[in-house]
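Re: folding output
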Amino acid sequence: MNAFATVADRSAVRDEKSTPKRSRPRPQRVWQTVGPPVIFVVMFAVVAALTPAFLGGGGLTIIAASAAPILLVALGQALVLHIGSIDLSNAAIALLGAILLATFLAPLGAVAPLVVLAIVTLCGALNGLLVAFAQVPSFALTLGTLGIYSAAALVTSGATTVYVTANGEGVAALYQTGVVGIPLTFWLGVVVAVILWAVLRFTRLGLGMTAVGRNESGAIFSAVRTRAIKVVAFSLSGFTAGLASIAIIAQAGSASPTGLGSDLLLPAIAAAIVGGTSISGGATNPINVVFGALTVALVPIATAALGIDAQAQSLVYGVVIITVVALTMTRSRGSIVK
């Protein structure tokens, strides 16, 4: 039996001893599973009922297109939250990747996305190495690298918009082509979510990430390679940020420090938490993060569709996000929420 499974089994034994056996799943756990999709469906139904033109005008397509980059960044954020850390820099990495992709497509063609994915994955790995080996708290470390990567994006772009001038057809097709009217950029996020869900539940890496998130000290004593797991988690956060870069270029055909993708950080964190990811670590369902991203993307679109004044939209957005997080967040690790 490997160390990852040992930690997970010990945790399960503790839970079994501390809670009485039940023949049926607890309502709280059921809600944590179905809550995110239910909330999105209810919100969408309310908007569709109040503004039928929104539904008839391709409202779901608009929401999915807006949610695609949020989802991809949120999936990486969810993995880092799963191990009990946070990555404040992955949205900046996505923006830097979009600028690099817009710059590289003309000279490198089809190789450009691969080059960008390699670069942004290394950016994420650097975060992970510093967190794991320099013992810098992830909040402070990624707050610093947020500034570094943002500055790099500003310098790389020359503080202006970088347009795709050639060889952008293949990337643009990801946004222009759809399945059931939904752009492929969103379906890319769904596929990544399913893969990550399987990784977390059926692989040694996933069990190790869960062990680190639930009890890092226990994971260390059980010979789990916690440092390596942190590097992998932050690397995956960088990689999904790179996929978000591709989604940004596919949709906009350009990138700039203040354009599409420049404000992904807070929506991505909100999407991860609205999707049920525990901010304390150890509880993540990447599939529910899909619905978290859809919900976060729906709120500003819905407020505009309902005719709410622009000055009040931020207020509505904040109230809705707080309410949805309160309804969907995982509290199974204890009665105290920090």
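--- second protein (sequence, then structure) ---
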Amino acid sequence: MTRKTLQGLHPDSYQHPFDRKALAALQKMPGLPLLLKKINEYGIDRLLRLQKLGNEFRVNPRNFPKLHNPLVETCQILDEPVPDLYLYRGTGHISTYTIGVEKPLIGVNLETLEWLEAEELLFVFGHEIARIKGKYLTYQQLAVVMPLLKNVISSTTLGFGGLAVNGIEIALYNWIMMAKLTADRAGLLACQDIDIAIASLMKLGGLPSEYLTPEVIEDFTQQAREFQFQELEGLDQVTKIFSFMEYQIPWHVMRASELLKWVETSAYTQLMESDPAQPPPQETEQPENVQDWDFLGNW
């Protein structure tokens, strides 16, 4: 399969509107600049990178070509420099990460290597490259160290700062979940096949290859089409908070649902047929005035 190279691809051209609104809401949270300042003061970016460099296997064309080659192809398609890639021990399910604001690197675990085919790796790597391309890593790393920062801020402000940080934490985790919807779109732009993207999401949800029969895939796709964010409208805010606080849960059905909508409304096809360097008009699934957009109430 010959895949289109998206020269000059701009992140705005595939950004999910839920991501856009959630990020804007997060950036307006009082106290966020203080947290970002603390991350810079503590050298968190360098520390996280050092932990990975000292603990994981660096991937190159000779030792793990099955991983290296799809990453290179993904970066060529999405028009992004190739970051360092590391392999770490298995965890029982597919797991990946991207860190490094100054010098990004991607990490994948052994299940990623063993469970995914080359085309599916394009989807997964596209998802991670979107974090780099969209300059999301500062906020992603904030989530990693949030428990520690909460204690520091709370102890230095007699508890009052802790209350503000709790609000930022909720907004942050909500945005991380919404940002996955954008990253999945980048994954599809990389693999350029919705069937590959759906199979990848099923494996990310914990289903090994031997169970991906045509019948299982068809039923999963139907389940994804039936999933609606509107079903959450009747839930109170506490329930919504708990639903996304565990932001590392794959939410693979929800993500497949949003990806299918993008394809079936022809927005994906229009992007593939247009100049990727020219951002299209923003989607309008959500109100345009971000001040009226409630990240707990409007999904």
